[in-house]
Amino acid sequence: MKAVVTGGAGFIGSHLCDHLIAHGHEVLVLDDLSTGSETNLEQLSGNPDFELVKGSILDKTLVRDVISECDTVFHLAAAVGVHTIVDKPLQSLRTNLHGTENVVEAAAARGARFLVASTSEVYGKNDTDGLTEDADRILGSPLKSRWSYAAAKGLDELVAYVYGEETGLPCVITRFFNIVGPRQTGRYGMVVPRFVGQALAGEPITVYGDGTQRRCFGSVFDIIPAVVKLMETPAAYNRAVNLGGLEEVTIRGLAERVVELTGSSSRIEYVSYEDAYGEGYEDMQRRMPDTALAGGLIGYKPQRRLDDIIGSIIEHKRAESPSPQVVVA
Ligand code: UDP
């Protein structure tokens, strides 16, 4: 495989690069390093099968150039994290809409296989127990910037799907449900690295709302082999596939697990949504994937338990900053 990974310097992208290189593939990363970092890829620097191109997916010529010699495109670049989306709505929209269009267009022109990373956010406020891929979207007002990520990712899916239908582009749409693991930063919202960072620093653990909202955290190490397998499975083309974990936890319960596993003396502090994200923020009460489709297509079965996932993040953060006074990422 000669693969291009957009967003390859990010959390999920860098693990994908590690996996592809370890399996003998050639990898070219296109990343503007806005939320990703070169540190995530330092283990690959100097590898003759690996190259990092620093640039934006909004640069159409660059995108075409980078994709011109590959056979597979994993499109993971996006403006991510609730704080990014709420603080920079226009920039996020541009990246997530026009960026994807540029990448899918170049992949189609090249005749490369294409995968776009989508998100459980596309289900919006639908909190059905076990969301299947054909579940309805329940989105709030399009004028609330909070929903712009869900709106843009929904359109990304549609653009990829229509390209697939009209041009025969082999395309896979993966919907990630709260994927977490080492290298993920809490700087832009993601709750697990935030809580771990806070616990290691002895700072209050900031639970937003009353903490009864529930999530199902999936391990990056479970989903990476699945992403690659889906790309190699024609039955997965031109459809959306959920990927995530199966162990559900309340956010309050997560905070308690993090405190226990770090041995921290941090207390839990409840923060209103308004103070956390600004006025009018709407959180999803529950988001739980049904992964039967991935199970049927590629035998997907998440293996990692929540405690192990949290443990791997604690280990990574401790290694990053060995002193007991760790600054929150
Ligand atoms: N959250 C929290 N404290 C934080 C960051 C997030 O309580 O410091 C909550 C957030 O409101 C949501 C859940 O944790 O209910 C998961 O947030 P994240 O941004 O990781 O993912 P989301 O599911 O919102 O996409």
Description:
- By secondary structure, the chain is α/β, with parallel strands linked by helices.
- The protein has a domain at 2-181 and 217-244: Rossmann fold (3-Layer(aba) Sandwich).
- It is 40% helix and 18% strand.
- Strands 3-2-1-4-5-6-11 form a seven-stranded parallel sheet, with helices on both faces. It has a three-stranded mixed sheet with strand order 12-9-14.
- Strand 5 (113-119), helix 5 (148-167) and strand 6 (171-176) form a beta-alpha-beta unit.
- Helix 1 (11-22) packs across helix 7, helix 4 runs parallel beside helix 5 and helix 8 packs across helix 11.
- The longest helix has 22 residues, at 89-110.
- The radius of gyration is 19 Å and the shape is globular.
- The mean pLDDT is 94.
- The structure holds uridine-5'-diphosphate (UDP).
- Uridine-5'-diphosphate binds next to helix 6 and strand 8.
- The site of uridine-5'-diphosphate has 13 residues, from helix 6 and strand 8.
